[in-house]
Amino acid sequence: MRLITTAIVCVTALAWRPWALAVQETVEFEGAPFSMGVQRRIGVKLLPIEDQAGYALAAVLPQDTASLDLVELKWPKSSRTCTLAVARSGVPGNRRSAAARTSLALLVKDGEPQRLAIEPALSEGIVGRICVWCTRGDEQGDLIVLCSLGASAPDARICAFAVSPDGSVHAIDTGNAATLFGWFDCTDLDDDGTYELITARSLDGMAGGFEYHAVRQFDVASSKYLAAPDKFHPFFSDELAWLEWVVETRAAIQADPQKYLNTSQDGPAYQATYQGRSYGFDSVVELPQSAASPESVNAYNAERRKAFELVRAYRDQLRAWLGGGAQPSAWKIAG
Asked: Does residue 250 carry a pLDDT above 60?
Protein backbone atom coordinates (compact mmCIF):
# COMPACT_ATOMS: atom_id res chain seq x y z
CA MET A 1 0.00 0.00 0.00
CA ARG A 2 1.30 3.47 -0.80
CA LEU A 3 2.45 5.77 2.00
CA ILE A 4 0.18 8.80 1.94
CA THR A 5 1.76 12.23 2.04
CA THR A 6 -0.18 15.29 3.15
CA ALA A 7 -0.47 18.21 0.76
CA ILE A 8 -2.02 21.61 1.35
CA VAL A 9 -5.36 21.77 -0.36
CA CYS A 10 -7.43 24.89 -0.85
CA VAL A 11 -10.91 24.81 0.64
CA THR A 12 -13.58 24.89 -2.03
CA ALA A 13 -17.15 25.92 -1.40
CA LEU A 14 -17.16 24.93 2.27
CA ALA A 15 -16.93 21.27 1.33
CA TRP A 16 -19.94 20.37 3.43
CA ARG A 17 -23.04 22.54 3.76
CA PRO A 18 -25.16 21.57 6.77
CA TRP A 19 -27.65 24.32 6.04
CA ALA A 20 -29.37 22.53 3.17
CA LEU A 21 -32.76 23.68 4.48
CA ALA A 22 -31.77 27.34 4.72
CA VAL A 23 -34.35 29.72 3.32
CA GLN A 24 -31.99 32.11 1.53
CA GLU A 25 -28.46 31.66 0.25
CA THR A 26 -26.26 33.90 -1.85
CA VAL A 27 -25.86 32.92 -5.49
CA GLU A 28 -22.43 32.46 -7.03
CA PHE A 29 -21.55 35.18 -9.52
CA GLU A 30 -19.48 33.37 -12.12
CA GLY A 31 -18.47 36.51 -13.98
CA ALA A 32 -16.01 37.73 -11.35
CA PRO A 33 -12.33 36.67 -11.41
CA PHE A 34 -12.61 35.81 -7.71
CA SER A 35 -15.14 33.88 -5.64
CA MET A 36 -18.26 35.98 -5.13
CA GLY A 37 -21.72 35.28 -3.68
CA VAL A 38 -24.55 37.79 -4.11
CA GLN A 39 -28.08 37.86 -2.70
CA ARG A 40 -30.56 36.85 -5.41
CA ARG A 41 -32.42 40.14 -5.52
CA ILE A 42 -29.26 42.22 -6.08
CA GLY A 43 -28.27 42.85 -9.68
CA VAL A 44 -24.61 42.22 -10.46
CA LYS A 45 -22.35 42.48 -13.50
CA LEU A 46 -18.68 42.87 -14.32
CA LEU A 47 -17.73 46.21 -15.88
CA PRO A 48 -14.85 46.87 -18.28
CA ILE A 49 -12.01 48.82 -16.72
CA GLU A 50 -12.68 51.52 -19.32
CA ASP A 51 -16.03 52.22 -17.65
CA GLN A 52 -16.40 55.78 -16.41
CA ALA A 53 -16.72 54.52 -12.84
CA GLY A 54 -13.27 52.96 -13.18
CA TYR A 55 -11.69 56.33 -13.97
CA ALA A 56 -13.37 57.89 -10.96
CA LEU A 57 -12.32 55.08 -8.63
CA ALA A 58 -8.74 55.12 -9.91
CA ALA A 59 -8.33 58.53 -8.29
CA VAL A 60 -8.59 57.01 -4.79
CA LEU A 61 -6.66 53.79 -5.47
CA PRO A 62 -2.87 53.33 -5.08
CA GLN A 63 -0.77 54.73 -7.89
CA ASP A 64 1.01 51.39 -8.29
CA THR A 65 -2.23 49.51 -9.02
CA ALA A 66 -1.32 46.70 -11.38
CA SER A 67 -4.72 45.13 -12.04
CA LEU A 68 -8.27 46.22 -11.44
CA ASP A 69 -11.71 44.57 -11.48
CA LEU A 70 -14.98 46.49 -11.38
CA VAL A 71 -18.23 44.90 -10.21
CA GLU A 72 -21.50 46.82 -10.48
CA LEU A 73 -24.10 46.06 -7.79
CA LYS A 74 -27.73 47.16 -8.16
CA TRP A 75 -30.05 47.70 -5.20
CA PRO A 76 -33.19 45.51 -5.17
CA LYS A 77 -36.13 46.92 -7.15
CA SER A 78 -34.09 49.99 -8.07
CA SER A 79 -31.86 51.49 -10.73
CA ARG A 80 -29.47 52.75 -8.03
CA THR A 81 -26.04 51.19 -8.43
CA CYS A 82 -22.78 50.86 -6.56
CA THR A 83 -19.49 50.00 -8.26
CA LEU A 84 -17.00 47.95 -6.24
CA ALA A 85 -13.36 48.19 -7.30
CA VAL A 86 -10.91 45.42 -6.38
CA ALA A 87 -7.37 46.60 -7.07
CA ARG A 88 -4.08 44.75 -6.71
CA SER A 89 -0.64 46.29 -6.40
CA GLY A 90 2.81 44.80 -6.35
CA VAL A 91 2.59 42.09 -9.02
CA PRO A 92 1.64 43.53 -12.43
CA GLY A 93 -1.13 41.57 -14.11
CA ASN A 94 -1.18 38.76 -11.53
CA ARG A 95 -4.52 38.63 -9.72
CA ARG A 96 -3.63 35.52 -7.72
CA SER A 97 -0.14 36.22 -6.42
CA ALA A 98 0.13 36.03 -2.64
CA ALA A 99 2.69 38.86 -2.84
CA ALA A 100 0.03 41.29 -4.09
CA ARG A 101 -1.61 43.98 -1.98
CA THR A 102 -5.36 44.42 -2.29
CA SER A 103 -7.32 47.66 -2.08
CA LEU A 104 -11.10 48.09 -2.21
CA ALA A 105 -13.03 51.18 -3.26
CA LEU A 106 -16.70 52.01 -3.78
CA LEU A 107 -18.65 54.46 -5.87
CA VAL A 108 -22.40 54.88 -5.39
CA LYS A 109 -24.11 56.38 -8.42
CA ASP A 110 -23.96 60.20 -8.36
CA GLY A 111 -21.67 60.05 -5.32
CA GLU A 112 -17.96 60.38 -4.66
CA PRO A 113 -15.48 57.48 -4.86
CA GLN A 114 -14.28 56.16 -1.50
CA ARG A 115 -11.38 53.89 -0.69
CA LEU A 116 -12.33 51.43 2.05
CA ALA A 117 -10.22 51.47 5.19
CA ILE A 118 -8.57 48.05 5.57
CA GLU A 119 -5.95 47.11 8.14
CA PRO A 120 -2.52 47.01 6.44
CA ALA A 121 -1.96 43.42 7.57
CA LEU A 122 -5.23 42.35 5.91
CA SER A 123 -4.41 44.00 2.60
CA GLU A 124 -1.35 41.80 2.03
CA GLY A 125 -2.58 39.03 -0.23
CA ILE A 126 -5.40 38.26 -2.59
CA VAL A 127 -9.18 38.26 -2.26
CA GLY A 128 -10.47 34.95 -0.94
CA ARG A 129 -14.16 35.69 -1.35
CA ILE A 130 -16.70 38.53 -1.46
CA CYS A 131 -20.36 38.28 -0.42
CA VAL A 132 -23.02 40.98 -0.74
CA TRP A 133 -26.57 41.21 0.64
CA CYS A 134 -29.08 44.01 1.32
CA THR A 135 -30.79 44.82 4.60
CA ARG A 136 -34.08 45.58 2.81
CA GLY A 137 -35.90 44.52 -0.32
CA ASP A 138 -35.65 47.93 -1.96
CA GLU A 139 -33.23 50.82 -2.46
CA GLN A 140 -33.73 52.05 1.10
CA GLY A 141 -31.59 49.27 2.53
CA ASP A 142 -27.85 49.13 3.07
CA LEU A 143 -25.66 46.90 0.96
CA ILE A 144 -23.55 44.72 3.27
CA VAL A 145 -20.23 43.86 1.64
CA LEU A 146 -18.03 41.18 3.24
CA CYS A 147 -14.57 40.28 2.00
CA SER A 148 -11.83 37.90 3.08
CA LEU A 149 -8.28 38.94 2.30
CA GLY A 150 -5.00 37.12 2.63
CA ALA A 151 -6.49 33.98 1.08
CA SER A 152 -3.12 32.22 1.01
CA ALA A 153 -3.18 32.01 4.83
CA PRO A 154 -4.98 29.21 6.72
CA ASP A 155 -6.84 31.77 8.87
CA ALA A 156 -7.95 34.59 6.58
CA ARG A 157 -9.63 37.53 8.34
CA ILE A 158 -12.96 38.90 7.10
CA CYS A 159 -13.73 42.61 6.85
CA ALA A 160 -17.18 44.05 6.20
CA PHE A 161 -18.78 47.37 5.24
CA ALA A 162 -22.29 48.82 5.05
CA VAL A 163 -23.01 50.97 2.00
CA SER A 164 -26.00 53.30 2.32
CA PRO A 165 -28.05 54.46 -0.70
CA ASP A 166 -26.78 58.02 -0.09
CA GLY A 167 -23.21 56.84 -0.65
CA SER A 168 -22.02 56.84 2.94
CA VAL A 169 -19.95 53.83 4.05
CA HIS A 170 -19.07 52.51 7.49
CA ALA A 171 -17.07 49.52 8.64
CA ILE A 172 -18.85 46.57 10.28
CA ASP A 173 -17.28 44.76 13.22
CA THR A 174 -17.07 41.04 12.41
CA GLY A 175 -15.69 40.06 15.81
CA ASN A 176 -12.29 39.18 14.29
CA ALA A 177 -13.94 36.51 12.17
CA ALA A 178 -11.41 34.34 10.36
CA THR A 179 -11.96 31.49 7.94
CA LEU A 180 -9.99 28.69 6.34
CA PHE A 181 -8.16 29.86 3.22
CA GLY A 182 -10.61 32.72 2.75
CA TRP A 183 -13.83 30.81 2.13
CA PHE A 184 -17.04 31.83 3.92
CA ASP A 185 -20.77 31.95 3.23
CA CYS A 186 -23.58 34.38 3.95
CA THR A 187 -26.92 32.62 4.48
CA ASP A 188 -30.23 33.62 6.05
CA LEU A 189 -30.55 30.59 8.30
CA ASP A 190 -33.57 31.79 10.27
CA ASP A 191 -35.50 33.65 7.52
CA ASP A 192 -35.37 37.01 9.32
CA GLY A 193 -34.07 39.01 6.35
CA THR A 194 -30.48 39.27 7.61
CA TYR A 195 -27.69 36.99 6.47
CA GLU A 196 -25.58 35.04 8.94
CA LEU A 197 -21.81 34.82 8.44
CA ILE A 198 -20.65 31.19 8.29
CA THR A 199 -16.92 30.54 8.55
CA ALA A 200 -14.77 27.41 8.49
CA ARG A 201 -11.81 26.47 10.70
CA SER A 202 -9.52 23.47 10.73
CA LEU A 203 -10.91 20.75 12.98
CA ASP A 204 -8.16 18.15 12.93
CA GLY A 205 -5.16 20.48 12.53
CA MET A 206 -4.16 18.83 9.24
CA ALA A 207 -3.81 20.59 5.89
CA GLY A 208 -6.69 19.46 3.70
CA GLY A 209 -8.39 17.76 6.65
CA PHE A 210 -11.80 18.16 8.25
CA GLU A 211 -13.41 21.49 9.16
CA TYR A 212 -15.86 22.81 11.68
CA HIS A 213 -17.99 25.92 11.34
CA ALA A 214 -18.93 29.05 13.24
CA VAL A 215 -22.06 31.18 12.81
CA ARG A 216 -22.28 34.92 13.46
CA GLN A 217 -25.57 36.81 13.36
CA PHE A 218 -25.90 40.33 12.00
CA ASP A 219 -27.21 42.65 14.71
CA VAL A 220 -29.09 45.48 13.00
CA ALA A 221 -29.10 47.80 16.02
CA SER A 222 -25.33 47.79 16.48
CA SER A 223 -24.43 46.96 12.85
CA LYS A 224 -22.12 44.18 14.05
CA TYR A 225 -21.68 40.49 13.44
CA LEU A 226 -22.00 38.73 16.79
CA ALA A 227 -21.44 35.13 17.81
CA ALA A 228 -24.88 33.61 18.40
CA PRO A 229 -24.65 29.79 18.36
CA ASP A 230 -27.61 29.34 20.72
CA LYS A 231 -29.93 30.71 18.01
CA PHE A 232 -28.89 28.13 15.44
CA HIS A 233 -29.26 24.72 17.05
CA PRO A 234 -30.65 23.14 13.83
CA PHE A 235 -27.47 24.15 11.99
CA PHE A 236 -25.24 22.57 14.61
CA SER A 237 -27.48 19.51 14.91
CA ASP A 238 -26.81 18.88 11.21
CA GLU A 239 -23.10 19.37 11.80
CA LEU A 240 -23.25 16.86 14.66
CA ALA A 241 -24.92 14.29 12.41
CA TRP A 242 -22.11 14.74 9.92
CA LEU A 243 -19.47 14.37 12.63
CA GLU A 244 -21.10 11.16 13.85
CA TRP A 245 -20.79 9.85 10.31
CA VAL A 246 -17.12 10.90 10.14
CA VAL A 247 -16.30 9.03 13.36
CA GLU A 248 -18.20 5.91 12.29
CA THR A 249 -16.72 5.95 8.79
CA ARG A 250 -13.18 6.31 10.09
CA ALA A 251 -13.71 3.14 12.14
CA ALA A 252 -15.07 1.36 9.06
CA ILE A 253 -12.04 2.41 7.00
CA GLN A 254 -9.64 1.19 9.68
CA ALA A 255 -11.46 -2.15 9.72
CA ASP A 256 -11.60 -2.56 5.92
CA PRO A 257 -9.36 0.04 4.21
CA GLN A 258 -9.51 -1.63 0.79
CA LYS A 259 -13.24 -0.92 0.55
CA TYR A 260 -12.62 2.86 0.73
CA LEU A 261 -9.42 3.06 -1.30
CA ASN A 262 -9.42 5.61 -4.11
CA THR A 263 -8.21 3.76 -7.20
CA SER A 264 -7.99 6.83 -9.43
CA GLN A 265 -4.63 7.94 -7.98
CA ASP A 266 -5.99 11.51 -7.90
CA GLY A 267 -7.08 13.13 -4.67
CA PRO A 268 -7.09 11.49 -1.24
CA ALA A 269 -6.23 7.82 -0.82
CA TYR A 270 -9.31 7.08 1.30
CA GLN A 271 -12.72 8.45 0.37
CA ALA A 272 -16.32 8.09 1.53
CA THR A 273 -19.55 9.82 0.53
CA TYR A 274 -22.03 11.68 2.76
CA GLN A 275 -25.25 13.12 1.32
CA GLY A 276 -23.87 12.96 -2.19
CA ARG A 277 -20.52 14.63 -1.43
CA SER A 278 -17.17 12.86 -1.28
CA TYR A 279 -14.76 13.38 1.65
CA GLY A 280 -11.13 12.43 2.02
CA PHE A 281 -10.08 10.65 5.23
CA ASP A 282 -6.30 10.74 4.83
CA SER A 283 -5.88 13.13 7.76
CA VAL A 284 -7.33 10.65 10.30
CA VAL A 285 -6.71 7.14 8.90
CA GLU A 286 -3.69 5.15 10.12
CA LEU A 287 -1.59 2.88 7.93
CA PRO A 288 -0.73 -0.77 8.58
CA GLN A 289 2.84 -1.49 9.67
CA SER A 290 3.61 -3.24 6.40
CA ALA A 291 3.17 -0.01 4.44
CA ALA A 292 6.71 1.25 5.00
CA SER A 293 9.48 1.30 7.59
CA PRO A 294 8.16 0.98 11.18
CA GLU A 295 9.65 4.32 12.26
CA SER A 296 8.01 6.37 9.50
CA VAL A 297 4.67 4.58 9.87
CA ASN A 298 4.66 5.03 13.65
CA ALA A 299 5.26 8.77 13.29
CA TYR A 300 2.66 9.06 10.56
CA ASN A 301 0.06 7.14 12.56
CA ALA A 302 0.71 9.15 15.71
CA GLU A 303 -0.20 12.32 13.80
CA ARG A 304 -3.38 10.68 12.47
CA ARG A 305 -4.43 9.50 15.92
CA LYS A 306 -3.94 13.01 17.29
CA ALA A 307 -5.97 14.47 14.42
CA PHE A 308 -8.78 11.98 14.93
CA GLU A 309 -8.90 12.67 18.66
CA LEU A 310 -9.48 16.34 17.87
CA VAL A 311 -12.42 15.38 15.63
CA ARG A 312 -13.88 13.02 18.22
CA ALA A 313 -13.39 15.49 21.08
CA TYR A 314 -15.19 18.23 19.18
CA ARG A 315 -17.99 15.79 18.28
CA ASP A 316 -18.40 14.95 21.97
CA GLN A 317 -18.37 18.61 23.05
CA LEU A 318 -20.88 19.60 20.37
CA ARG A 319 -23.18 16.75 21.38
CA ALA A 320 -22.94 17.80 25.03
CA TRP A 321 -23.69 21.45 24.21
CA LEU A 322 -26.74 20.56 22.13
CA GLY A 323 -27.89 18.55 25.14
CA GLY A 324 -27.66 21.60 27.42
CA GLY A 325 -23.98 21.51 28.38
CA ALA A 326 -21.11 23.97 27.99
CA GLN A 327 -20.07 25.39 24.64
CA PRO A 328 -17.25 23.57 22.80
CA SER A 329 -13.89 24.96 23.88
CA ALA A 330 -12.80 25.39 20.25
CA TRP A 331 -15.30 28.25 19.87
CA LYS A 332 -13.43 30.45 22.38
CA ILE A 333 -16.52 32.58 22.97
CA ALA A 334 -16.07 34.85 25.99
CA GLY A 335 -18.77 34.91 28.64
From this structure: yes
